[in-house]
């Protein structure tokens, strides 16, 4: 479908008279030098192009909301991880750390959530009779893996939507470009006379405007998706490392051999 749209756009542009395409290029250059009136382009655009541009602007708004929210989430996650690791490795008693994690007046996330899940399961199994140290350790590890998966899913939330916006926006803009050129050619045919520069160049500018909006939406979304994906991977490695280190501590307490 994408290949068909690209081929159609190329065919339509080649079919336009040379003076028209040259005029459109000159008009775009003049607009760049003197400033483009985007509201005027929108007001004179055809209904399909207006709908497509509005969809793109809605996608841009959604993507920026996601970007700002995820930036805050990752900043908070990094700060909380640093703070908890400082308390954990300062030699604080595990029981006191667990009591602080289970305080109902505060919510836990990240490393503290993984610690809380593992130590809670460890204490629960330790109160049972007939369970050896290996069973305690395996139960705590399962609980930490579950919490780890939950925390990574929380960090990845809405990233898929950001990727979809970034990957589809250029093609949605391309559809608007094709519609704009089709409308321009239709007006040329219905005019019954050779179209002049003043009547054709705005239509081509309108068509190219849709593609520009698509790129404007896609570039920040793709950049942010790649950036946040890298940060998710780094935090996931940090979670795994802590879970392994905490497992080693529990292993020494239970006296389980490797």
Automatic annotation (TrEMBL):
Q: What name appears for this protein in its UniProt entry? A: Tol-Pal system protein TolQ
Give TM segment ranges: 47-68, 161-183, 203-225
What's any GO biological process attached to this entry?
Answer: cell division
* Function recorded in the entry: Part of the Tol-Pal system, which plays a role in outer membrane invagination during cell division and is important for maintaining outer membrane integrity.
Q: Which gene encodes it?
A: tolQ
Q: How does it sit in the membrane?
A: Multi-pass membrane protein
**Where is each MotA/TolQ/ExbB proton channel domain found?**
112-240
Extract one GO cellular component term from the record: plasma membrane
Task: Give the subcellular location.
Answer: Cell inner membrane; Cell membrane
Its quaternary structure?
A: The Tol-Pal system is composed of five core proteins: the inner membrane proteins TolA, TolQ and TolR, the periplasmic protein TolB and the outer membrane protein Pal. They form a network linking the inner and outer membranes and the peptidoglycan layer.
Chief site of localization? membrane
* Source organism (scientific name): Stenotrophomonas tumulicola
Q: Enumerate the UniProt keywords alphabetically.
A: Cell cycle, Cell division, Cell inner membrane, Cell membrane, Membrane, Transmembrane, Transmembrane helix
Its lineage reads: Bacteria, Pseudomonadati, Pseudomonadota, Gammaproteobacteria, Lysobacterales
Q: Which InterPro entries match?
A: ExbB/TolQ_transport (IPR050790), MotA_ExbB_proton_chnl (IPR002898), Tol-Pal_TolQ (IPR014163)
Q: Family assignment?
A: Belongs to the ExbB/TolQ family.
